[in-house]
Amino acid sequence: YRQWLVLKVVHFEGANTPTNIADLICTDKPTITRITDHLVDSSLLVRNRGLDDRRTIHLQLTDRGKYLVTVGLAVFENVPELLKARLTHKEAAKVSFIESSFIRDS
């Protein structure tokens, strides 16, 4: 789940440093380092050194990472409907009521 969050904030929020990512997903930098190590090893992210300050790390999605985010988002968008299809009529009515109350309250 955290790997997915990192990919999402890099793609959608434009976060490109471990500090930015850690702030956005409310976790510590060592955790981000472990996650990004795995994502770099999986060819989903690349690390680049800052031009002005070599201590700065900039993260960027690879083409494979961009593809995964795009496909993953399409799958996740369909999950609520897939779950609702497995509910009884009574359960589905309760879920619809809860959803409408969120919309109404926002």
Characteristic key phrases:
single chain; two-stranded antiparallel sheet; mainly alpha; 5 helices; 68% helix; 106 residues
Write a brief caption for the model.
By secondary structure, the chain is mainly alpha-helical. It contains five helices and two strands.
Kindly describe this structure:
This protein is mainly alpha-helical and 106 residues long. The protein is 68% helix and 9% strand. The protein contains 5 helices and 2 strands. A hairpin with a 7-residue loop joins strand 1 (45-49) and strand 2 (57-61). The longest helix is centred in the last third of the chain and has 23 residues, at 63-85. The mean pLDDT is 85.
For the record, give the distance between the C-alpha atoms at the N and C termini, rounded to a whole number: 26 Å
Report the portion of residues in β strands: 5-15%
Helix count?
5
The amount of helix comes to: 55-70%
Low-confidence stretches: none
Main beta-sheet strand count, sense and barrel state: 2 strands, antiparallel
Within the largest sheet, what's the order of strands? 1-2
Q: Tally the beta strands.
A: 2
Summarize the topology.
Elements: H1 2-12, H2 18-25, H3 29-41, E1 45-49, E2 57-61, H4 63-85, H5 89-105
Antiparallel strand pairs: 1-2
Helix pairs in contact: 2-3
